[in-house]
Specification:
It is built from two helices and no strands. 81% of the residues lie in helices and 0% in strands. The mean pLDDT is 83. It has helices spanning 15-31, 38-111. It is mostly helical. Keywords: Coiled coil, Membrane, Transmembrane, Transmembrane helix. Residues 50-84 form a coiled coil. The chain crosses the membrane at residues 90-111.
């Protein structure tokens, strides 16, 4: 404030005070703004990826279970085949023995 000639006082410009109130209002509005934590943003962005990966895992698990069932079926078929092969070997050995005995019997009958 300066003293002017004739002893008149000049009052300060009150526009600055009005701007201060405006700035305070803006600061109050900003204070009321809710800021989302980074972890929530990342979680929201990863959710579709995780859901997709869970579906892939589910499909792979289903296919693995089907393959495992197929493996068990084939393993059982192999065991059954091994049993059948043992039976066929026994039948072959018995047939060979009978054929040999038949040959001997034929030779003995013809020799008599």
């Amino acid at each position: 404030m300066k003293d002017l000639p004739n002893n008149k006082l000049i009052l300060p410009d009150l526009e600055v005070l009005n701007n201060a109130k405006t700035f305070q209002g803006i600061l109050d509005d900003i204070a009321n703004v809710e800021i989302t934590p980074v972890s929530e943003i990342i979680t929201e962005q990863l959710k579709p990826i995780i859901d997709k990966e869970e579906k892939v895992i589910e499909v792979l698990t289903d296919k693995y279970n089907k393959l495992n069932e197929l493996y068990k079926i084939k393993e059982k078929e192999l065991e059954d085949t091994k049993k059948d092969n043992k039976i066929m070997k026994c039948v072959s050995v018995i047939s060979a023995v009978i054929a040999f005995l038949s040959l001997i019997a034929t030779i003995l009958v013809s020799a008599l």
